[in-house]
Amino acid sequence: MKLWGGRFEERTDKFVEEFTxxxxxxxxxxxxxxxxxxxxxxxxxxxxxxxxxxxNTIKDALGExxxxxxxxxxxxxxxxxxxxxxxxxxxxxxxxxxxxxxHTARSRNDQVALDLRLFLxxxxxxIAALIVAFQKALVETALxxxxxxxxxxxxxxxxxxxxxxxxxxxxxxxxxxxIERMHFCREQTDRLPLGSAALAGTTHPIxxxxxxxxxxxxxxxxxxxxxxxxxxxxxxxLSAATLIAVHLSRLAEEIIIWxxxxxxxxxxxxxxxxxxxxxxxxxxxxVAELIRGKSGRVFGDLIGMLTVLKGLPLAYNRDMQExxxxxxxxxxxxKACLVAARGLIGTMTVNDKAxxxxxxxxxxxxxxxxxxxxxKGVPFRDAHRTAGEAVKKCLVECKALADLxxxxxxxxxxxxxxxxxGVLSVKESVKKRVSSGGTSPKxxxxxxxxxxxxxxxxxxxx
Length: 462
Hints:
Layout: H1 14-20, H2 23-26, H3 30-46, H4 52-71, H5 83-95, H6 108-144, E1 149-154, E2 157-163, H7 164-189, E3 191-192, H8 208-215, E4 219-220, H9 224-229, H10 232-259, E5 266-267, H11 286-309, H12 323-347, E6 349-350, H13 352-360, H14 366-375, H15 380-397, H16 406-412, H17 426-431, H18 441-459
Parallel strand pairs: 3-4
Antiparallel strand pairs: 1-2, 5-6
Helix pairs in contact: 3-4, 3-6, 3-8, 4-5, 6-7, 6-12, 6-18, 7-10, 7-18, 10-11, 10-12, 11-12, 14-15
């Protein structure tokens, strides 16, 4: 008989039993469920709702169940529906009527909300650690290629020369904001729902603050209905996870482009590429492509969770069982992609010659010519027009800007003098970008020092 089957006369249809069961996926919450149950029974004993002997009997049996589940020896039965019932049913089978006292002043509604918060709190810390590890890999890659010059792009068109180290560090700061969002998500998750019971609280004299302390929560859910019926902390996490996926996908896309024969900016390690079943020459960037592709799964997890919640009346509804698979999938996917991205970046080789050659082509120094004229007192719009005319002339004559003679320059604008050639090199162009956050070697060196301090600060958050 089901633990809830007192008012039922008919057995649950086999299909319904399978359709409603969450045990195949929520059994991964067993550690959190047992931890919560141990804290709950400790509180029941403290408040005089069960005796010391009863509490110790329940704790010992829960410890045995934990060890069996940890080792993979536990005999799961789909008839138990979920991990909560699997543990409680086994407890009662083993210790008898005493086991039935575990659920005093508790519902599956607040129990599952607790398990999810315990689970997510741990996973947020693990994801944050993976982000920090990836940030370290980005800093190391930047330091190893500190002076490499490449073309910066807008609209995927060569725009201005930048340092490769500056470009790759853009992702460091994106991930830094992802860490901040993880920190916020952890704060939102850090509320104890246990004690809310089904929705209205309980008539028993429990001590929720005591349980919060045992489980490391800094707050309790102030409203019992809210405690069991909302999953906004999951939505906030999924939203933050989606942005992590976006950032990783953008980086993966750039690596795929850079690795192509048309660009040749980087060479990916054979450890992070695969071959073709028919074309023997191929070395495919499958890891990067999967990072890019898996972002769609995380987006779907967020939309799925929002859709589950959007029309639910208060309080708990069985629809909310659908919160787990989306959460688990997003957690697993983001963690795997962070590990993959770290390895991808850490093992790739930067082709500095191809990068600087590309920066020297395509008139990436045209803005420097315009800025040069501004320095000579020419209004920017006039300077912009002159630089554009110079580019047009070079395109017609198949020249680079530095190939124009001084006479040709002066024909375009009399303010140009011999010193113009000093500003047209990509090295000089990069060197002069000295504004805060700019791409000059000095500013990038400062940025990297700041990044090291940021990493140290991030580690203290979790």
